[in-house]
Design brief:
The chain has 281 residues and is an alpha+beta fold. Helix content is 16%, strand content 28%. The strands form 2 sheets. Strands 2, 4, 5, 8, 9, 10 and 12 form a 7-stranded antiparallel β-sheet that branches. It has a 6-stranded antiparallel β-sheet with strand order 1-13-3-11-7-6. It starts with 7 loop residues before the first helix and ends in a 23-residue tail after the last strand.
Length: 281
């Protein structure tokens, strides 16, 4: 047991400082995006089966919506630059810029060296949830994704429908490559509809039953050409466990919408980050 120093209380009472103030970040034009969304036509849809994953494409300047359609269900979302799969969603930097959970007006940022907005959240029917008494909130960027390696470590066995494996199979099928080639491209996710937080006493990552109900959705504007993959988590609403063949699970619907020609007049896809990449050399 460590010895408590005499000035322990004073050290603990030091006020925190926000690591990345975002006052200088360009604000998304939500009004403009919403105006463009009016009259947009649906051009594609994918139904993601329970305990499976599916890929979908969204060209820059289009919208995609993820909807709960039959019962409370969470989903694990991966995004890539459709033209360059090495540029992918960076959950850690998104968390550092926007917080542990994201909602309307927040953006999903891409990996280094591009570090630019990939998608902007334009609508979220669960935005009312906020932060509950347990410290839980919805749409987290703090978890990774349920995976067969951690499952094997903690419980043994060979479970193949964890979100990591679901995303791997879906990407392998979409690219017509082997799962061993697809797996390194799978990355930490946006946990869509998932309600999570950290316990106050031990600091452990927790999940609780999602508040999502059929008809709830989260909608994004694609800032660049996107390839997406969504897994309908084997944990269902994640109120009990997240790697299970017995938990009730439901499909998720992905819809893609194309605005009318000219509806995005003046909008430009964001360029890659301006850092010169010299790293001091």
């Amino acid at each position: 047991m460590t010895t408590r120093p005499d000035d322990a209380a004073a050290r603990r009472e030091i006020a925190p400082v926000i690591c990345y103030p975002v006052d200088t970040l360009p604000a998304p034009d939500l009004a403009g995006y919403r105006a463009a969304r009016q009259g947009a036509k649906k051009v594609d849809e994918v139904v993601v089966a329970p305990r499976e994953a599916s890929c979908f494409g969204v060209p820059a300047g289009q919208f995609f919506r993820i909807t709960s359609v039959e019962g409370p269900q969470v989903g694990d979302l991966n995004l890539w630059n459709a033209q360059n799969l090495t540029e992918r969603f960076y959950s850690g930097k998104t968390r550092a810029l926007h917080g542990t959970h994201v909602t309307t007006g927040d953006r999903l940022w891409s990996s280094f060296p591009a570090l630019r907005p990939m998608a902007t959240i334009v609508e979220d029917t669960l935005g009312w949830y906020g932060i509950d008494a347990f410290g839980g909130s919805v749409h987290d960027v703090i978890g990774t994704r349920c995976d067969p390696y951690t499952h094997n470590l903690l419980a043994g066995g060979q479970y193949h429908h964890c979100c990591h494996s679901n995303l791997t199979r879906a990407l392998a099928d979409a690219l017509d490559i082997e799962p061993t080639e697809a797996e390194p491209l799978v990355h930490d996710v946006l946990n869509v509809f998932m309600c999570t937080g950290f316990t106050r006493d031990t600091g452990q990552y927790f999940m609780k039953a999602s508040p999502v109900r059929p008809g709830d959705y989260i909608e994004f504007f694609a800032e660049i050409d996107l390839l997406g993959a969504l897994s309908a988590c084997p944990g269902g609403d994640c109120g009990a466990e997240h790697s299970s063949d017995t938990t009730p699970c439901y499909p998720l619907l992905v819809e893609v919408f194309e605005p009318k020609e000219g509806a995005l007049s003046g909008w430009e896809s964001p360029t890659v980050n301006g850092y010169d990449r010299s790293h001091g050399r």
